[in-house]
Amino acid sequence: MPKALSLRGAHEHNLQHVDLDVPLGLWTSVVGPSGSGKTSLVVDTIVKEGQRRFLSGLSARARQFHGKLGRAALDGIRDLPATIAVGQQNSTDSPRSTVGTLSGALDLLRLLYAREGVDPEGVELTRSHFSFNHALGACESCNGIGLEDRVDPNKLIEDPTKSIRDGALRPTLKNGYTVYSQVTVDVMNDICRAHEFDIDTPWQDLTDAQRHVILYGTKALKVPFGKHSIESRMKWEGITARPREEGYYRGLVPVIQETLDRNRNPNILRFVETVACSTCAGSRLARPGREARVGAHTLPQVLAMPARELHTALSSLGATPVWSAIRPGVELRIERMQRLGLGHLALNRPSGTLSGGEGQRLRLVAQLTAGLGRQLIAFDEPTLGLHPSEQDGMRAVLDELRELGNTLLVIEHDPDMVRHADHLVRLGPGAGSEGGQVVASGPLHAGDESPLGVAPTRKANRRAGRGHLRLRGATLHNLCEADLDIRLGAFNVVAGPSGAGKSSLVFGTLLPALQGEGRNLYRELEGAPEGGVQAVDARPIGRTPRSTPATWSGLFDLVRKRFAAEPLAIERGYGAGRFSYNNKEGRCATCEGLGFRRIGLHLMQDVELDCPDCGGGRYAPATLEVLHKGRNVAQVLAMTVREACAFFADDEPIFAMCRAMDDLGLGYLGLGHSSNRLSRGEAQRVKLATLLGLADEKESLLLLDEPDRGLHPSDVELLLRSIDALVDAGHTVVAISHHRHLWAAADVLTEVQNGVTTDDVEPQLQPLTQVRGARTEHTPPTEIQLTGVRTHNLQSVDVTIPHEKLTVIAGVSGSGKSSLAFDTLAAEAWHRYAESLPFQVRRFVRRAARPELERADGLGPTLSLRQGQARAGARSTVATQSEIGPLLRLLWSRAGRLDGKPTGWSASHFSTEQPLGACPACEGRAVVARCSAERLVTHPDLPFAGGALKGTRPGRFFSETDGQYAATLRTALDAEGADAGEMDLVWSDLSDRVRDIALNGTGDRVLSVEWSFQRGARSGTHQFEGPWEGLAHLVEREAIRRRGSQKAAEWRTPLVDVHCASCEGSGLLPERARVRVGLWTLPEAQALTVEELGPALEGAELDPEATSVMDALLPEVRERLEDLRALGLGHLALDRRSRTLSEGELQRVRLAGLLRSGLTGVTFVLDEPGSGLHPRDLESLVARLRTLCDEGNTVVAVTHRPEVLRAADHFIEVGPGAGEEGGRVVAEGTAESVLQGDGPTARALREPLPARSATVRSEGRLRIVGARANNLKDLDVELPSSGFVCLTGVSGSGKSSLLFDVLGASMAASAPVECAAIEWVDAPKGSDARFPLAMFDEVSSSREVGAGQTVLSSLGLMPAMQSLYHACVDGDEPKKTAFSFLSPAGRCETCKGSGREDIALDVLADLALPCPDCAGLRYRPSVLDVLWNDMNVAEFLEIPTDRLRAHLPKGKLLAALDALSDVGLGHLSLGRRRNQLSGGERQRLDLAQGLLAKGKRTLYLLDEPSTGLHESDLHRLANVFVRLAEKGHLIVAAEHRTSLIAAADERIELGPGSGPAGGRSVRVS
Question: What's this model's pTM, rounded to 2 decimal places?
Answer without folding.
Answer: 0.73
